[in-house]
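FAQ: What does the model actually see?

It sees only this:
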Amino acid sequence: MEASRATAPAHRRVRVWDLPTRLFHWTLAALVTFSVVSAKVGGLWLDWHMRSGYAILTLVVFRLLWGAAGSRYARLAHFLRSPRLVLAYLQGRHPHDGAGHNPLGALSVVAILAVLLVQAATGLFTNDGNFTEGPLGRLVSSATGEVFSTVHRWGELAVYGLVGLHVAAIGFYLIARRDNLVTPMITGDRVGIEARPAEDGPALWLRAAVMLALAGGLTSYVVLL
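And it is asked to produce this:
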């Protein structure tokens, strides 16, 4: 990674994150924060907690679709790596060119998406035995609903842990390696690297809108079963 930067002009900007991926990232972060806060407040806010869960489910499904139809560095095929390669990266034997997710970051993304998918899915079947019930809670027994509720509660801790590790890793790269990973997720560009730029523009945005509509339609269908 360092060698790639050394040979690239310091002013060179390379588009690595397309606009849909950036919007997905920050919207998901906002929704997860809102879901945590609304769950803690409780009461009537639990209705908004569930709505936020539907939105998170839509975004996670969108990201999976975008992992197949998105731009170069957003595709799952680009950044999914084997455990052996992740270990090689940690040992410094597999340099990263700075474009897209490094192997460790990719593992973090996959883990967060998986946990959020489980959280959103189990939330559909939850039943706290009081006033709050997921839209699909009526399809399962009270005992099964309690199992889903328990998984959902424990999943909250997993979300805290993974998000905490994600933020800590960003801080580590910023302080120890002088590598700012936040700005590219805002601007879309990495500076001073040699890499092929990702696609970004109206045609890609239209494709993203179609993927988001499909994800929203699927979520609505499931919720209204």
